[in-house]
Design a protein that fits this description.
Elements lengths: L5 H11 L25 H13 L4 E7 L7 H13 L4 E7 L2 H13 L6 E5 H9 L7 H6 L8 H8 L10 E5 L2 E5 L1 H6 L8 H11 L7 E3 L7 H13 L16 H11 L15 H10 L2 E7 L3 H7 L6 E3 L9 E4 L3 E6 L6 H12 L1 H11 L2 E2 L14 H10 L4 E4 L8 H8 L1 H8 L5 H21 L1
Parallel strand pairs: 1-2, 1-3, 6-7, 9-12
Antiparallel strand pairs: 3-10, 4-10, 4-11, 5-7, 5-8
Length: 458
């Protein structure tokens, strides 16, 4: 049985904490070495053109981005342009997929053998894909790469735990950490302080709500990722240390979680907008940045958007309050990574692109632009990683003696289906009063228990 080692995950987060978020308002410029190669001399350019002519047909690779949008796509396009211009025999074509439809599109492609050559995906999908045997083993490529030592070894270990045999089918390039984002300017107008306890949070949400003016204390996430967001908050509140107890039973329906969710769900359509029930990431962030929601729960990945829309004195990233156990409890942050699908006719060429994207310059440019945690250790030495308030907030929390990380069981093949397909509709039904909090959490736990038992049996 593969279980994520808590100390390993904590070590990974501590090592990466200095890279949490980036809030620079300016449009980042690509690092110098991600710029097109071949501009040193006309003779060198001519030689490259001749090599293209003599080297046979150029390899064309398709790359799918699972979270396309105006805050990510331009940076991918810039990096891919640099890669293509630096290559003689390889060309990568970008296809962006909006996050709500990405998992479904990937699943259909896997079922019909129409997958891209290279994919970027949520690690929560990885174990399911490994089980379907649709990915290329990256071990030999990674071990032969002379820069592999720069990639955070703890997250490489987590990637290996997606496979029962410990093989490497995905390599993480970016990680985000959940936070509470607070409109400090709005709280100040009401004479309120930044919440320091969970009671403070509920009190602030109540007092900030002015429904007649279209202002609410909080904004829910209600789309297919709602249970991922909720999971972070439940364990942050309870301080329960393990996702499965000593008897192998899921702890998501613990009494502490029932108590919190009962109070939390009661905010809907009273201290939140009615439309929150279908809120995606964009709607939730727009409500916060636009001033119709004073507080949201989201990860470090929205830092650059807040910095673009607001002034530094208008908002702040705040760690979740201490748990009932007196700890700062976090589920391990969301991670995304690159993989090569078995339909790829030239995995060697695909690996060249992944190497490029994991290089110091590319990994720095990407994570600096989207406000997330880089996986290339050399990037941690760059000044941008400690420039933002959200960086220091996360650093202070993650390095605290009170911090504890709860590992999400992404090694379960059914994990992403349970989280993103089965339960969001139940969450919405619970908010509407069509399902009790206890029934919702019991159903969630039962699904996880079944998936865990099946995993153990295999």
């Amino acid at each position: 049985m593969k279980r994520t080692n808590q100390k390993q995950v904590l070590a990974a987060s501590l090592a990466l904490a200095m890279a949490l978020g980036a809030t620079a308002c300016r449009k980042p410029e690509p690092a110098k070495e991600t710029q097109p190669a071949g501009d040193t001399s006309s003779a060198e350019t001519t030689a490259k053109e001749e090599k293209k002519d003599d080297g046979g047909e150029k390899v064309t690779l398709t790359f799918w981005d699972e979270n396309a949008g105006e805050n990510r796509t331009p940076y991918y396009e810039e990096l891919i342009k640099s890669f293509n211009e630096s290559q003689d025999q390889i060309e990568v074509k970008y296809e962006g997929i909006p996050s709500p439809s990405a998992k479904e599109k990937y699943d259909v492609a896997i079922a019909t053998d129409t997958t891209p050559d290279i994919g970027h995906c949520n690690a929560a999908w990885g174990s399911n894909w490994v089980a379907q045997e649709c990915l290329v083993d990256l071990d030999s490529y990674f071990s032969a790469w002379d820069e592999s030592k720069n990639i955070n070894e703890n997250y490489v270990r987590l990637n290996r735990e997606l496979d029962p045999d410990g093989k490497l089918f995905m390599i993480t390039d970016t990680v985000s950490t959940p936070l509470m984002w607070v409109r400090t300017d709005m709280l100040k107008e009401k004479g309120l302080e930044i919440p320091k306890t969970w009671d403070d949070f509920f009190d602030a949400v109540e007092k900030m709500t002015d429904a007649q003016s279209g202002v609410y204390g909080f904004s829910f996430r209600g789309d297919s990722s709602c249970c991922v967001e909720l999971q972070h908050v439940l364990y942050a509140y309870s301080g329960i240390e393990n996702y499965f107890d000593e008897n192998g039973k899921c702890t998501i329906n613990a009494p502490e979680h029932v108590d919190f969710l009962t109070r939390y769900a009661a905010l809907y359509n009273k201290r939140t907008a009615e439309s929150d029930i279908t809120n995606g990431y964009k709607e939730m962030v727009a409500a916060f940045d636009g001033g119709s929601a004073a507080i949201i729960f989201h990860n470090t990945g929205s830092a650059s958007e807040h910095a673009t829309a607001l002034n530094p004195d208008q908002y702040q990233a705040v760690s979740f309050p201490e748990s009932k156990a007196g700890t700062y409890s976090y589920t391990a942050g969301s991670q995304g990574g690159f993989c090569i699908f078995d339909t790829c006719k030239d995995p060697d060429a695909a690996w060249e692109f992944i190497k490029f994207m994991l290089s110091e310059d590319s990994n720095s440019y990407w994570n600096r632009s989207i406000g997330q945690i880089p996986m290339n250790g050399k990037v941690l030495e760059e000044s941008w990683v400690s420039d933002s308030q959200s960086t220091m907030e996360a650093l202070n929390t993650l390095t605290s003696d009170k911090c504890h990380l709860v590992s999400q069981p992404k090694y379960l093949p059914d994990y992403s289906t349970i989280m993103n397909t089965n339960n969001p509709a139940n969450f919405q039904a619970m908010l509407l009063g069509e399902m009790s909090v206890q029934d919702f959490l019991d159903g969630w736990a039962e699904q996880m228990n079944d998936a865990y038992a099946e995993y153990q049996a295999q």
